[in-house]
Specification:
By secondary structure, this protein is of the alpha/beta class. It has 5 helices and 5 strands. The strands form 2 sheets. The chain has a 3-stranded parallel beta sheet with strand order 1-2-3, with helices on one face. Helix 1 runs parallel beside helix 2. The relative contact order is 0.21.
Length: 131
């Protein structure tokens, strides 16, 4: 349950996709599938699933993922777009988070969130009414 609400709230409270925008979800496991579903509910016009395991793509269609990308099939990085990246989940406190300075200069935003900034009273009620 923790992962579900972390993912849900990371989309609602941190990423805040606007209606009609494109969203890319990296790793199509349980948490990523919930993020895709919440992006769909939020009105994303295109949801791209990114995963090294192509077997996950069929299941992801049930959660609103429309296009699939396996990074192994590309010789260039696939995240060369503008936008907001939300980092959530359990990271080792000693693991560095690295990015190239051009990522920030090219209008990219990196956000972090702990449990998706989950607010039980308001977020659970929103989810209950909208799903």
């Amino acid at each position: 349950m923790c992962g579900i609400f972390t993912s849900l709230c990371a989309i609602l409270n941190a990423a805040k996709p606007e209606n009609g925008l494109t969203v890319a979800i990296f790793r199509l496991e349980a948490v990523g599938l919930v993020a895709a579903e919440e992006a769909r509910i939020a009105g994303a016009s295109r949801i791209i699933g990114v995963d090294l395991n192509s077997k996950r793509f069929n299941e992801a269609k049930n959660f609103g993922v429309m296009k699939f990308v396996n990074p192994k099939d590309h010789d260039k990085p696939i995240q060369e777009r503008r936008g907001v990246a939300v980092l959530f989940g359990v990271l080792n406190k000693d693991d560095p988070v690295k990015t190239h300075p051009m990522n920030v200069l090219n209008e990219k935003t990196l956000k972090g969130t702990f449990f998706g900034n989950y607010k039980p009273r308001s977020d659970f009620l929103w989810w209950w009414k909208n799903t």
